[in-house]
Every structure is written in C-alpha cells, then in structure tokens.
Design goal:
With 649 residues, this protein is α+β, with helices and mostly antiparallel strands. The protein folds into three domains: 415 residues, Glycosyltransferase (Alpha/alpha barrel), CATH 1.50.10; 104 residues, Immunoglobulin-like (Sandwich); 112 residues, no CATH class. It is 34% helix and 19% strand. It contains 17 helices and 23 strands. Strands 2-6-7-8-14-10-11 form a seven-stranded antiparallel sheet, with no helix packed on it. The longest helix has 21 residues. The radius of gyration is 25 Å and the shape is globular. The termini are far apart.
C-alpha cells in the first residue's frame, strides 16, 4: 500500500489571505463571542440553547433542571474545539486571546466537576436519567457527544499544552473502552450517530495509546453485524413493533463492507466514512479503502448537488436514490457538507488524487460558506438551491426551508460546526508525502507554510487573489539546497488551461499526475514560481438523468457556483432564461456583499400574453440582462427569491 500523505497542522500554516483572514478574524472577534452568548441563552429572539446552564447544574454549581435536546452538550463542545483552533492561529491580540483561553479554562473546570468518578460525562443522563446510561445507543447520542468532547480536547491541548481537558477525555474514553468491545463482559454496540470513531483516532494520534485506535476499529467493524445490536437493544427496552426508521438511517443495516450506496442520514454517513478512512489507513486495509472509493463514487457521481450539498430529503435528513436532487426541497444540511469535506480530506491523503480536493473545495466555498451570514451572526441549517418565499413559507413539505438565516436553532449543530471548520482551515491546505519527497498544495489560500521535506526545512510563501483570480505566486525558502517536488493541484474549474513560470521563465519540465502539477527540481532559496490558472465563467449542465435540472444550466466561476437573486433580477426567477450564445462577463464589485465578482449574462424573460392559466399561445420573450452572485452570499439583502439553475434559451 502506498504511503499516505500527512497534512500540515494549523500550527504549521499562517493564513494571510484577503478572503479567508477576515473570516477567521471574524470567527475570533464575532462568531466565538456570539456563540458563547447563544450557549448562555443571551441572544434576544433566538431559540435558547441551555448548554451552559445544563453543565453548571451537572457540575453542581447551580440549581435547576435539564432543558434542550438530548445531545445539547455537543454544541458547547464544538464551540470549545473552535476556541482551540482560534488559539492555534497566529494573531497579535494577546489580550483577547488570554481572555478567551481563560473563558475556555472555566468551562473545562466545570467539565471536570461534572465528570463521574468512573469517567462518564453527559449532562442529560447525569441530570435526567442516570440509571439509563448506555441503554439506547441508537437514539440517545451519548457516544456522539463524547466524540465531540474528545475532538475539542485534542484541539485545545494542541493549542495550549494544557493537560486538564485531555485527562478528562482520556478518563471518558477509558470508561467507554471498559463498557464496549469484544468479549462477553462488554456491550457489543456502536454509536447511533458516528463521530466517536474519528475522535478516538485523533486521541490515539495525540496520546499514542493504541487502545483508542482499537476501539475505533471495533465500532466500525461491529456496525451492522448480525444479530443486529440496535434490534436487540430495542427488544431489551421493551419496544413494541419496528422503529419508524429502518436500519439504513443509521447505516446499520449491514456491515460497512457490504454497503454499496450511500444511504440514510447524510451527516451520520459522512462521519462514519471519515472514521473508517482514518482506521483503514492506519491498518493499511486495502479492502476497506477500495470500498470507500466505491462509496465515494456513488456520492459524488449520483447524489451530490452542484453546490457540494448532500442529503436531498428532509425526511430523515437523508440520501434517497441516484439522481434524486430536487432544488426547492433540498435538505443539504450545512453539517453534511462539512462532513463531506472531512471525508474528502481524508481520502485525499490516501489517494493523492485531486478529485477529492476538487470536491473539498466545492463544499467549502458553496455548501458550507452559505450556512453563515456575512456578519457571522445568522445561520442556515438547510441550504436549498431554489427558494420562492411565497411558496416555501406555506407548503408543509417545505417547512424545513428557512428563507432567511436564523440567529440560532433549538437543534444548533450547524452554527458551531461551521465555526470550527472555518477556524481550522489551515489544516486542509497542504500535505507532505515523504515517500515522494513532495509538498502538496491542495487549496490556494495566501499565507505561509512551514514543512519538513526529506529532512529539509521548507518555507513557502503563497500569494494569490483566489478565489476571485486564478494567479498564484509561490516563493520558496529552505535550509539547504536539495531536490524535492512541489505538487500543485490543477483545479477542475480551470479545465487544464494554465501556465507556469519559474524565476520569470516558462517552465515545461513538469508532470501531471492524478490532477496535480508536479515540479521536481534543485530548489534554491528565493526561487519564485508563478502559476496562472484560467478562471473563466463556465456554463454547467447536469447529467440528463438528473430530472430536476433538465433543460437548465448554472454558472460557475473558479470555485464558486453562482445564483440569481430577486434583488438583482426581479421576481419569478423561474421565467428567466440564459442565452447560451450571448455575452457572459464577470467583474469584481467591492461594494457589494463584502466584495464579490458578479456575473452578467444575456438572457430573456418569458411573459404571458393573457391571464389564462393555460393557453396555446407561445407567450412573449423579453430580452434581459441577468446578474448572478456567488451562492454563498445569497440571503444577505433581505428575504427574496433565489435560484441556482435557470432555463437555457
């Protein structure tokens, strides 16, 4: 099995990027404080969280009763993980960082007080049903919450070096390992909502304790085996009849190696596949990795929205069948797009194939970024590709669609998940492959990266105006002059149209492999590489089997999928057609939506000639100029219609 790559850590990457630095700074200055207020129920007109009040009661520093969802702890844990990533970044405001660290330490102190002597930690079961610990793994999210706390602990420990939170989660993980696993004295269950699997892997990497790795593998291997644990568990609880959900919802209908299509709850699937990729890579399990590639093809070639969203059905927040991708009823949860990015990044390390980075980029700039408002204080849980408020606000089968972003949710998994993803972006940009003596660049974000390649300390400074411009400049510095490979992803959106200069001269001595441009040479300190990727406006068409988009097109430029909004194009967007032979141009407008490249295109609008509901009349076509903005920026100018796909004239 070829050696996999290793991503550079957040600590090895400094982001100094016009697009992303402001967003990461916003996470630190706006999002983290805002979400802390939400967790403490201090946001006016927002659904309460109860997360902090539950923890204080469980820690016995306050009185009261538990409120909120059974998995409410996880929102706080994702916030804490975000704090860890923020503290790992390179900002100059030491005072605010010290305050943030002190605040996080106060939360960790409460967690220590709330933990049971045996290591168990969950505020719901501590306060409401202590006698029912570990009795309903299928539905009650104990292991899911534990996973998010472990991920938070690893992030915070790596940022600060403080062991208290790491010791807390090691006690928790040891307790879980004593309860679950092979043998007659342990439960043979597995998480109803996968998350613990990839968290245990992170804990193993941090502590070098292989018990955590073995437990993660056990959970993945045991899932779906017969006799089915969830069925046995339900019988033991005295449940009468079948669940209203079949076992596919939990990806527990068969062992993972026997699952050939992505089914069930989309977020659960992505976390399961991510954890399985981690474990299979560590165990060099070629069979599992080949199977995960099969599942990847099913997701990305049959069940993926053009925005990087997944999970088309509001019922069970789930995948349905191949090519069933409705636009106006799309569920496409923000957390599902994040899960897809997590999985894509892991598959990328194993395969070194740019198609995984392409999907990672698509999800990041579209399906994830759309979930947060430009000011960082409003959120989408669901990300449809077509919205007509007059319909969405009145149809029962569209009640999951919100036409404006919300200040918070009673089930608030998405807001802190978006925050932790944005604050941890640095770890997705680069990887080192020691077997090839290569440094891979996956996403083009301006800043610096520090890596060791073949015992050579390498520093690269990357300058770019991406995602708005295709030019990239890289300056190389290193401790010794030695040959190594710089591998640059060739984005799918440039369609192979690019040029390369090294120290001002065109460079042709390179190879392309699995979508990466590989330049191997005896690098000298100060060498400058310039790459220009074509960034033209593209007209995208869907596979004809995707019936929701027959006869329609959408626009894409660089990593961005575009949409039309009522604010620019008037109402009844479904009557607009794009001309496939007219002019299409883009121009950056710094004063619009925080600065975006706007696409203008020739088109027409279909108008009726009478008020009859049905007619044999052809109607009239009126020439119009279409204005399209990046999908992520929609719904920042008030409520209105939006569509990604438009009719093709």
């Amino acid at each position: 099995m070829p050696q996999s790559m290793k991503p550079l850590s957040i600590q090895q990457v400094q982001i100094q990027d016009e697009f992303w630095s402001s967003r990461q700074k916003q996470v630190q200055d706006v999002v983290v404080p805002y979400q802390w207020a939400a967790l403490n129920d201090e946001i006016p007109d927002a659904e309460p969280s109860y997360s902090m009040s539950n923890l204080k009661i469980a820690a016995k520093v306050a009185d009261g009763q538990y409120h909120g969802m059974i998995f409410q702890d996880s929102d706080l844990y994702k916030w804490l993980e975000t704090v860890g990533y923020v503290l790992s970044q390179h900002h100059d405001d030491s005072h605010s960082r010290a305050q943030l660290e002190s605040l996080a330490d106060s939360v960790i102190d409460l967690l220590e007080k709330a933990q049971w002597p045996d290591g168990y930690l969950n505020t719901y079961f501590t306060l409401v049903r202590p006698e029912d610990r570990w009795k309903n793994l299928r539905d009650e999210h104990e292991l899911y919450c534990a996973g998010h706390l472990i991920e938070a602990a690893v992030a915070y420990y790596e940022a600060t070096g403080k062991r208290k939170i790491l010791d807390i989660v090691c006690r928790l993980a040891d307790h879980i390992g004593a309860v679950f696993g092979p043998g007659p004295d342990r439960k043979h269950g597995y998480p109803g909502h996968p998350e613990l699997e990839l968290a245990l892997f992170k804990l193993y990497r941090t502590t070098a304790n292989k018990d955590y790795l073995h437990l993660a593998k056990y959970f993945i291997d045991e899932r779906g085996r017969q006799p089915n644990y969830y069925v046995q568990e339900a019988v033991s609880r005295g449940e009468i009849g079948a669940s209203d959900r079949n076992l596919e919802y939990w990806q527990a209908h068969a062992p993972l190696l026997e699952q050939h299509k992505a089914v069930g709850h989309a977020v659960r699937a992505m976390y399961l596949y991510s954890g399985a990729t981690d474990v299979a890579t560590e165990y060099e399990d070629e069979e599992m990795l080949a199977h995960l590639r099969e599942l990847w093809d099913n997701v990305t070639k049959r069940r993926l929205y053009v925005t990087g969203g997944i999970g088309s059905s509001a019922h069970d927040e789930a995948f349905t069948v191949d090519y069933d991708l409705p636009n106006d009823r799309a569920y496409t949860e923000s957390c599902a797009a994040i899960g897809l990015m997590l999985w894509a990044h892991r598959m990328l390390q194993v395969t070194k194939d740019a198609r995984y980075a392409d999907v990672m980029e698509r999800a990041l700039y579209n399906g994830i970024l759309s979930g947060i408002s430009l000011d960082g204080t409003k959120y989408f849980y669901v990300n449809p590709l077509e919205v007509k408020p007059a319909i969405a606000n009145h149809r029962h089968d569209m009640r999951h669609i919100t036409t404006v972003r919300q200040p918070w949710f009673g089930c608030a998994c998405c807001p802190p998940n978006i925050a932790r993803l944005m604050s941890s972006l640095g770890q997705y940009l680069y990887s080192v492959d020691e077997s090839e003596q290569a440094l891979y660049v996956h996403l083009f974000v301006a800043g610096q990266a520090f890596a060791t390649v073949d015992q050579n300390d390498v520093e690269i400074t990357l300058e770019t105006a991406q995602p708005w411009d295709g030019d990239v400049a890289i300056t190389v510095n290193q401790t010794k002059d030695s040959p190594w490979t710089l591998a640059l992803r060739i984005p799918a959106w440039c369609r192979g149209n690019f040029s390369v200069l090294i120290n001002g001269k065109y460079w042709d001595y390179m190879e392309e492999e699995r979508g990466y441009l590989k330049i191997t040479r005896q690098w000298q300190a100060g060498d400058q590489l310039q790459v220009s990727f074509a960034m033209d406006v593209q007209i995208v068409r869907a596979n004809p089997l995707l019936r929701a988009d027959i006869g329609k097109v959408c626009l894409q430029r660089g990593p961005f999928v575009y949409c039309l909004e009522e604010a620019d194009n008037g109402a009844n967007l479904h009557t607009i057609c794009l001309s496939n032979s007219g002019s299409i141009v883009s121009a950056f407008e710094s004063g619009l939506l925080g600065g975006v490249a706007v696409i203008t295109a020739s088109g027409c609008r279909l108008n009726t000639v009478s008020d009859d509901l049905y007619s044999t009349d052809l109607g009239q076509k009126m020439d119009v100029t279409l204005r399209a903005i990046p999908y992520y920026a929609w719904a920042n100018r008030g409520e209105g219609e939006m569509t990604v796909w438009v009719n093709e004239a």
